[in-house]
Amino acid sequence: MEAGGNSLPAASGGDGTKRKVYYFYDPEVGNYYYGQGHPMKPHRIRMTHALLAHYGLLQNMQVFKPCPARDRDLCRFHADDYVAFLRSISPETQQDQIRALKRFNVGEDCPVFDGLFNFCQTYAGGSMGGAVKLNHGLCDIAINWAGGLHHAKKCEASGFCYVNDIVLAILELLKHYERVLYVDIDIHHGDGVEEAFYTTDRVMTVSFHKFGDYFPGTGDVRDVGYGKGKYYSVNVPLDDGIDDDSYQSLFKPIIGKVMEVFRPGAVVLQCGADSLSGDRLGCFNLSIKGHAECVRYLRSFNVPLLMLGGGGYTIRNVARCWCYETAVAQGVELEDKMPLHEYYEYFGPDYTLHVAPSNMENKNTRLVLEEIRSKILENISKLRHAPSMQFQERVPDTEIPEADEDQEDLDDRWDADSDTEMDDTKHADEQLLKPPVQSIKIKKEAAETEIKDQEAQKVTTEHVKTVKTAAEDTSCPKIPDVASMSLDEPSGVKLEQESSNQPADHPPAAAHSKP
């Protein structure tokens, strides 16, 4: 079977020009634990951070502890009752909420664990905070490796994802940028994000994923969007064993054409690492350098970039990948020999940053890849260049507090009338994003079209509130002295405590020993 080549040469930092990079990290994030045997392990974020610290990458960027997203932030996309459920559910109370667990798809792939809602607040707060920094022009690239949970839906959890931080971050970016591009290189289809923006021309979603008898089962090349969003959803279905050369033979021409035609003001890149060779749940054969080539290529356009995590279940390789991609974002090179650090033993026996891809068969033939590329480029060419959006009433920018204020109560940033002010801007938000975010996937079958259209009209009204916004901040003050930062409680760095901003009914994150 004719297939693509092997691995690409080392990815560099793009054009070599340094970028101003902001990085969001909460030292508690590694303590959250999905449960014994569950493949999703937030501990990988802490391992990534340890590598960043010991490679000296923290010195090249500003480090922020994310401000937890509040209920009102999460409800910009998610249903109120779903957010209330996430806040209330706990391992102790779940037996009393069997019907709600089933309704919101929580319990198996998406288990209830200690500190679940705090975890959601943390990773969503990092992604929204990065979007705010980009909106204010404070950095070129913002990174939140804890984010990228792309399967979560408006009213339910899915695929290890509870809150869709990506949708929330894009809604934040849409306050400032007329058009936002979302690119997903996770092995799984970015269904939650595509579904949210399926009917708008202001967000283009491009997903490269395994397709065919594979979770979540969506992402056919023929799924292109609906209504005003037609051709603004791009799906690149791939088969097992795709390697670096084959992947880039699609990624670069497709993304290049998208950038030329759509001309986004900002880009969100979901860097799911389960598309790497050897992933516990994956079946692709990308090297870390090949995966990072996607970062390098998007970085080269010099458009504001939000980089997020996502899947990745061989956690030593996840940490390797996201460390290297942080270096690519900064425009620096790293030695392959790994420095000694807290989790050094995870990376044996070679103790190197890079690992060789396997010799698995590439089932993606050149002929099939060329057909997919031609079809997608043809669809993109049907778009009118750079759709314009007239701002009839501009939504206020989110305010950012001063980084050096002495532990003031961060809730003071919003006065007692803040909810009223939010409601006053609702009309402006409705005008900002037309058509509104929609959570109903339009099916291709003609027999279902009429029913789906009726549902879409009904849900459209519900979704007006998803672009509801307030003039509030979603990122907390900067962590000083990042050069000396190490793993959990880095020496030389005192993370500013946010106790005054944490509701009293939030339990602390539960610490678990990893299996």
TrEMBL record:
Pfam family, one: Hist_deacetyl
SUPFAM superfamilies xref list: Arginase/deacetylase
InterPro entries: HDAC_I/II, HDACs, His_deacetylse_dom, His_deacetylse_dom_sf, Ureohydrolase_dom_sf
Entry binding sites for a divalent metal cation: D186, H188, D274
Catalytic activity: N(6)-acetyl-L-lysyl-[histone] + H2O = L-lysyl-[histone] + acetate
Region named Disordered: 388-515
Biological process according to GO: epigenetic regulation of gene expression
GO molecular function terms attached to this record: histone deacetylase activity, hydrolytic mechanism; metal ion binding
Binding site residues for substrate: D109, G159, Y313
Positions annotated as active site in the UniProt record: H151 (proton acceptor)
Name of the top EC class for this enzyme: hydrolase
Listed EC numbers: 3.5.1.98
UniProtKB keywords: Chromatin regulator, Hydrolase, Metal-binding, Nucleus, Repressor, Transcription, Transcription regulation, Zinc
Single GO cellular component term: histone deacetylase complex
Comp. bias (Acidic residues): 399-422
Compartment(s) of residence: Nucleus
Similarity-based family: Belongs to the histone deacetylase family. HD Type 1 subfamily.
Name the record gives this protein: Histone deacetylase
Provenance organism: Spirodela intermedia (Intermediate duckweed)
